[in-house]
Design goal:
This protein is of the alpha/beta class. The N and C termini lie far apart (54 Å). It contains 14 helices and 17 strands.
């Protein structure tokens, strides 16, 4: 009988090395080797010491390429995006992998999947319901879910088993958070609530402490809770977890605030019966946030953050930078248009891409560079090259 579920690769890394070489950058390697610094003409680029592809992303992309090599004659589907990077997803499509997009309600249509097909599960994972439907289809499943995400799943499952409601700090529409909270529903009585930020946490904590804002709770969390959720009943015991790519400091602050609220409601001595918390921010996310904090502590004229606009970890890097320095979050190197002297970018406090002409002013001399965990090095190198071209500076010999 054919094996129909794979999680550990196919041992084809050597065979796909040539394909993956396109994601490398000699320029980025050179800058890293020169102390994360490059000076050319009147411009100095300072590169964050942690940036770009993390281990989980590397693994997911490699596994996708191995899958294409392992099943050259099979129809391969991908549930959503493998990672949040437009360049990588477009390259997989170019190699004949069909990306399934969610419908208006967020549900995927698997009617085109046949038993002889192969389906890739993305680095974010998929919901319990999606996994069950794909297993029922009888197809081959190749699971690239990140190990850090799996750790969060184990945590919220433990909460459900112990009778604690999982309060997840995350974005309710994000693939990872959807997959995470679905794990709770595998258990009888499993409950979850998704909180986006500290402002939403304050509304939650007011209810925990006083119970006098039920209307605000229903308005804010009505579509961010498990089916049949009862605010009065299901917030007596809370276990905190988080989407792995959220701001680490905010996740920790949210956990402390919820702990304080439960202590006020039930008493400090009984807190252990009502509260659980474990930091489930992945190490790569933390490292990139720490590195960019160190980078912007230096004098910089502008900061360029490279990564998909729907990439949570990239958006958080841009938000961190924007507090200190003029920041351009670009989806791809192509957002820098040297001939026109313009840049297309998403403001840290916005949702739509905007265009800025003459962005590389004469007084811009020191440029910080970082990239989200889904951004390959070749796009970082190309972005630097395009900045140099905008200024009319030749790339220095490596």
């Amino acid at each position: 009988m054919e094996q129909t579920y794979f999680r550990k690769g196919f041992g084809l890394k050597q065979e796909i090395e040539g394909d993956l070489a396109a994601y490398h950058s000699r320029l980025v390697d050179h800058i890293r080797g020169q102390g994360y610094r490059l000076t050319a003409g009147d411009l100095t680029f300072l590169l964050a010491k942690e940036f770009g592809f993390c281990y989980g992303v590397d693994r997911a992309v490699e596994y996708a390429y191995e899958t294409r090599r392992k099943f050259p004659d099979r129809h391969i589907f991908l549930v959503g995006e493998i990672i949040h990077n437009p360049h990588v997803n477009a390259e997989l499509e170019r190699r004949g992998i069909t990306i399934l997009s969610p419908g208006p309600g967020g549900a995927f249509d698997y009617s085109a999947v046949r038993p002889d097909d192969v389906v890739l599960l993305p680095a974010f994972g998929v919901t319990v319901g999606d996994f069950a439907r794909l297993r029922d289809a009888g197809c081959v499943l190749v699971d690239t879910t990140c190990g850090s995400v799996l750790n969060v799943w184990k945590r919220v499952e433990r909460y459900a088993q112990e009778g604690f409601t999982a309060v997840v700090h995350g974005k309710h529409y994000h693939e990872e958070t959807k997959a995470t909270v679905s794990q709770v529903t595998r258990y009888d009585g499993g409950k979850y609530l998704i909180v986006r930020d500290m402002a939403e946490t304050e509304v939650l904590c007011r209810f925990v402490e006083h119970g006098d804002n039920a209307d605000d709770m229903a308005r804010l969390f009505g579509d961010k809770v498990s089916p049949g959720f009862d605010f009065a009943r299901d917030l007596a015991r809370i276990g905190v977890a988080n989407q792995t790519t959220m701001l680490a400091n905010e996740s920790l602050a949210i956990a402390r605030r919820i702990s304080d609220a439960l202590a006020q409601r039930h008493g400090e001595t009984r807190l252990g019966d009502h509260f659980r918390s474990f930091d489930t921010i992945c190490s790569a996310t933390q490292e990139r946030q720490d590195a960019v904090e160190q980078l912007i502590a230096q004098p910089l004229d502008v900061m360029i953050v490279i990564g998909g606009y729907n990439s949570s970890n990239t958006n958080h890097l841009a938000n961190i930078c924007a507090r200190k320095v003029k920041t351009y979050h670009i989806a791809d190197a192509g957002c820098i248009e040297p001939a026109a002297g313009r840049i297309r970018h998403k403001p840290a406090d916005g949702t739509e891409e905007t265009v800025e002409d003459g962005w590389l002013r004469d007084d811009v001399r020191r440029i910080g560079i970082t990239a989200g965990a889904s951004t390959p090095n070749n796009k970082i190198g190309e972005a630097i090259e395009r900045v140099l071209e905008t200024r009319g500076i030749a790339l220095p010999d490596e």
